Amino acid sequence: MTAEQWTRRHILQGSAAAAAALPVSMEAQAAPPGRSPLRQEGAHMTAVELTVNGREVHLQLDPRTTLLDALREHLHLTGTKKGCDHGQCGACTVMVEGRRINSCLTLAVMHDGETVTTIEGLGTPDRLHPMQRAFITHDGYQCGYCTPGQICSAVAVLEEIEAGIPSHATGDLDHVAFSDAEVRERMSGNICRCAAYPNIIAAIREVAGEKKA
Ligand code: FES
Ligand code: FES
Predict the structure, then answer these.
(1) Which of 3.10.20.30, 2.60.40.10, 1.10.3720.10, 3.40.50.300 is the CATH number of 46-121?
(2) Which residues of the chain form CATH 1.10.150.120?
(3) What pLDDT digit, counting tens, does each position of 17-43 carry?
(4) Are 63 and 46 in contact (CB under 8 A)?
(5) Ligand 2, residues at Cβ distance < 6 Å
(6) Strand ranges (DSSP E) for 126-202?
(7) From the CA of 200, which ligand is nearest?
(8) Pairing relationship of beta strands 46-52 and 99-102 according to DSSP bridges
(9) pTM for the full predicted model
(10) I need a surface site. Which of 45, 119, 140, 192 has the fewest CB within 10 A?
């Protein structure tokens, strides 16, 4: 058969045959979300202990469970959002041992014995964290889906600047200081599809000012 004789039907038939020949483990990786390997019966379970928002929790998890799924599906802390599930949007940002992390990119078992803070642990509707309050004051959201990740990231960003940790936007490595450019760079992993960026920066600027005062 010449190249000209190949049709779309031939290519699809070839792809189907290749998929049928996949070894079992690769089939599992290629499975759609509804048939995730995380839901397969008989998986070996592992004990994981975490301190989440000040509370000790003991979980029995499939070792392939991401920290994001452990929080949302097992602990029902649904404030942390699943956007892309691929480390691209920042919606799943939480703090582990005081440092921000994309919880979709890390396995829960890797954090056995560690401390996790989610948006629920930062503040409550009655006792808002200053960053939560500032996001409300400055209208730092529209649909709100990215907001828990934005707020966790913003809190960590100010701590990183205070600790003198430089970013790609830092001019003088000996004097890391707050600036809009620093914040934009450090928050660049948190995507807002509603494009509330100017208001998010305004909220972070206000909290940075309060901390300075
Ligand atoms: Fe984790 Fe998008 S859900 S980065
Ligand atoms: Fe809608 Fe950010 S407020 S995605």
Answers:
(1) 3.10.20.30
(2) 124-212
(3) 433 333 333 333 333 444 444 555 667
(4) yes
(5) 141-147, 192-194, 196
(6) none
(7) 2
(8) unpaired
(9) 0.81
(10) 45
Query: CA 60, 61, 62 angle in degrees (round to 5)?
Result: 140
Expressed in angstroms and rounded, the spacing between residue 191 Cα and the centre of ligand 2 is 8
Q: Whose CA is nearest to atom 4 of ligand 1?
A: 87
Separation in Å, CA 70 to CA 48, 92, 112: 10, 12, 12
C-alpha span between 16 and 182 (Å, rounded): 49
Q: How many CA atoms lie within 13 A of 163 on its CB side?
A: 10
Ligand 1 pocket test, pick from 66, 84, 191 with the greatest ligand atom count within 8 Å of Cβ, gives 84
Structure tokens at 70: 């452990």
CA dist., res. 197 & res. 157, Å (int) = 15
**What value does the mean pLDDT take over residues 93-119?**
98
Looking at CATH, the fold of the domain delimited by 124-212 is given as DNA polymerase; domain 1 (1.10.150)
> What number of other Cβ atoms are within 10 A of residue 74's Cβ?
15
